[in-house]
Every structure is written in C-alpha cells, then in structure tokens.
C-alpha cells in the first residue's frame, strides 16, 4: 500500500480532515475517565510520542510529548498549551530507535494507510509500552445505531483493524481490555451517545465521527430522519430506553497495551 499519498490538507488516511476537521475539537473533547485509562496504560512514562495526535486529546500532561499529525486542519486545533505537532505519518516516524519511554495513539489507527507499518514504527521508537485506544470491529455492529445507519457502522467495522492484527504487529506481550463508555461521555464518537441519541440528530456531531463522511449526505440525512421519527414517536425508547439509565456501556471501545518481550 502506498503510504506516501496525502490529501491537500495533509491527511494521510482515507478520511479528509480538511473537510471534516473544522469543529472537531468542539465535539471530541477528551473524557477524563477514558483519559485515566490511557494514563494508567502509559505507566508513568516521562517521554511519550502521540501518533495521529489530532487536536491533542488524551495526551498526558505529566510527560514530555512529541505529537505527530499529518492533517493541517487538526494541527491548527491544538491548544496553545500543547506542543506543536510534527507533520509526519505513522508509517514513517521521524525519530530514532527507542527514542521514547512509551508511544500512544487514540482513535487514529483506523485512519492510517498501513496500520501494521505504523504500529511497527511505534514499537521501534518506544522503549516501553505502546498504547492503542481503538474500536474492536467485531463489536461495532452490536450498537443500536446499526438499526438506523447500517452503512456508517459497516464503514467503522471495515476501517478498524482487527485487534488480533494490532497485537501481532506490536509483538511482545499484549493485553486488551474493554473501556467502559460513560453515559455523559464528553468525547463524541458514535457510541458516546448510547444514552443520548438526540445528539446524533446534530449534523456537526455526526461530522465529528469520521465514518459518517463515507456516507452520501442525502443518505446520512435519511438515517437521521429515521432516528428523529422514532424518538418523536417513542419507538426508540420502547426498544432502547433502558440505556438512558445505564451509567456506562461496554461497547466496542478497547485499549491495547503491548510491552517488549
């Protein structure tokens, strides 16, 4: 696979963040409980490379961070308190072997042109743990959204690499854990709205989930209209209303942590 092809914005994967990136930070704010899981997995590393860093979500505040992000639109949304991101791709990290205590990537590996190559690069530059926050494609279609937006969930399942492929590329000793998604999750990926379906009626909220960008706009509108009708009629609550009372969801969100053998 060609790892050199990049869009005008610099986006190196299959999603065009020049088009969908503006406004991303407003809807994709890091959730502190998910951040705690990521921080625990990093194990107190003093130096960390964040690959596919985007606007800087989940970067540890107590470590020296080198951020890598190919999209100009996403680099521009990084807060001033964070270090500027290096314009590079996961498959060719501009760092030496064992340059960092740890490496991390969150909600990014499915965007890469060659995930296995990018993961091997993360392993190359990290002396210690490599931490990957991602979605298990085998679980994506279990979410209620599949009833309303099947192509969105099919796209998610197609784009995310199987967890077994991630652990194989990283090598060493790997552990995989599911990460509970809080009902009031501030990071607006699709499953974050499991108890607040009304949020997905907002086009900007949908735009912040890259899988929606692969659906023709008129079809996305039809999906949203079907959800709106069921919310107005009470049909959604008849089938899924119990989710509104659940404090968290065990969905497709997983955390992979691999250390050298």
Automatic annotation (TrEMBL):
Region called Disordered, residue ranges: 1-28
Gene3D superfamilies linked: Vaccinia Virus protein VP39
Gene Ontology biological process terms in this record: methylation
UniProt keyword annotation of Glycoprotein present: no
Composition bias type Low complexity, residue spans: 10-19
Keywords, alphabetical: Methyltransferase, Transferase
UniProt xrefs under Pfam families: Methyltransf_11
Segment forming the signal sequence: none
Domain Methyltransferase type, chain residue ranges per copy: 50-127
Keyword Acyltransferase: no
Highest taxon, organism lineage: Bacteria
GO molecular function, one term: S-adenosylmethionine-dependent methyltransferase activity
Protein name as it appears in the record: Methyltransferase family protein
Gene source species: Allonocardiopsis opalescens
């Amino acid at each position: 696979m060609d790892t050199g092809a990049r869009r005008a914005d610099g986006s190196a994967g299959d999603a065009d963040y020049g088009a969908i990136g503006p406004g991303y930070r407003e809807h994709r704010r890091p959730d502190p409980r998910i951040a705690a899981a990521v921080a625990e997995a990093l194990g107190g590393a003093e130096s960390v490379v964040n690959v596919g860093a985007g606007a800087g979500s989940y970067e540890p505040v107590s470590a020296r961070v080198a951020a890598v992000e190919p999209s100009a639109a996403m680099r521009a949304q990084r807060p001033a308190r964070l270090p500027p991101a290096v314009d590079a791709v996961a498959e060719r990290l501009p760092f030496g072997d064992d340059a960092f205590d740890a490496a991390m990537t969150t909600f990014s590996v499915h965007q890469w042109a060659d995930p296995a190559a990018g993961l091997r690069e993360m392993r190359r530059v990290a002396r210690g743990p490599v931490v990957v926050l991602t979605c298990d494609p085998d679980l994506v279609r279990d979410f209620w959204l599949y009833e309303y937006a099947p192509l969105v969930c099919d796209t998610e399942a197609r784009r995310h690499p199987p967890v077994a492929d991630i652990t194989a590329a990283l090598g060493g000793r790997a552990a995989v854990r599911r990460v509970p998604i809080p009902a009031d999750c501030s990071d607006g990926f699709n499953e974050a709205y499991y108890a607040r379906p009304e949020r997905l009626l907002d086009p900007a909220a949908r735009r912040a989930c890259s899988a929606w960008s692969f659906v023709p706009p008129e079809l996305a509108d039809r999906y949203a209209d079907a959800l709106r009708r069921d919310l107005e009629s009470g049909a959604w609550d008849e089938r899924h209303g119990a989710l509104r009372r659940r404090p968290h969801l065990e969905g497709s969100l997983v955390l992979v942590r691999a250390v050298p053998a």
